[in-house]
Design a protein that fits this description.
Radius of gyration: 17 Å
Number of strands: 13
Shape: globular
Strand order of the largest sheet: 4-5-8-9
Strand content: 25-35%
Distance between the termini: 30 Å
Structural class: alpha+beta
Largest sheet: 4 strands, antiparallel
Number of helices: 3
Length: 195
């Protein structure tokens, strides 16, 4: 079974946001974030931080081994008209951060300060994907590299244009520690086979 088929078979978990006074995770555990435009072009690669440092760029690329730079924690922050969330990279502990308010502004990761350029609204679309926009600019998160993209593709901001490169799928992923235990358990079972 291909990765694309596995993702197509997965269902998204949607949880109602808590009251503004209760900061709680919208999706339990860790999330991988995929772009519809890239999926439509058979590129099923997650959004990830490029390295674990302050102001490291964010792009869509093939994940490397087990660095967890492609996993995010999505947590409710506040309600101001729409509900806003923060995206924290699991490996670095840094927040998804817009580096400007104009079209084509870059998106990186930085220490979470609670600034509006680190707060993101999730708007459910009729196709089941999300549009994600930055609170400070209202511009959509997008991954547009070309009509037929090749990884890596930069993640940036742009005015809402209702295109696939501004549509995102948030997929729950088991915690990395759980995956390691599953792999270890599988290896132990192989070692116990009878001769």
């Amino acid at each position: 079974m291909t990765i694309k088929a596995i993702l197509a078979a997965m269902t998204m978990v949607v949880v109602l946001a808590p009251a503004a006074s209760e900061a709680a995770t919208i999706f339990p555990g860790y999330q991988a974030i995929y772009n519809k435009h890239m999926q439509n072009n058979s590129l099923v690669v997650p959004m990830q931080a490029v390295g674990g440092g302050e102001l490291a760029n964010v792009n869509m690329n093939v994940p490397t081994a087990s660095d967890n730079l492609d996993l995010w924690s999505v947590s409710f922050v506040e309600t101001v008209g729409d509900d806003f969330y923060r995206f924290i990279n699991v490996a670095s502990g840094l927040a998804l951060t817009a580096q400007g308010t104009a079209n084509n502004s870059n998106v990186a990761q930085a220490t979470y300060t609670g600034a509006d350029n680190q707060k993101w609204a999730l708007l459910v679309q009729v196709d089941g994907y999300y549009e994600i926009y930055a609170k400070d600019s209202g511009r959509r998160l997008e991954a547009y590299g070309a009509a037929t993209p090749t990884a890596p593709v930069n993640v940036s901001l742009f005015t809402d244009n209702d295109k696939a490169w501004q549509r995102w799928q948030i997929v729950p992923i088991p915690e990395p520690a759980s995956l390691a235990l599953l792999a270890l358990g599988g290896m132990m079972m192989l070692g116990r086979r009878r001769a």
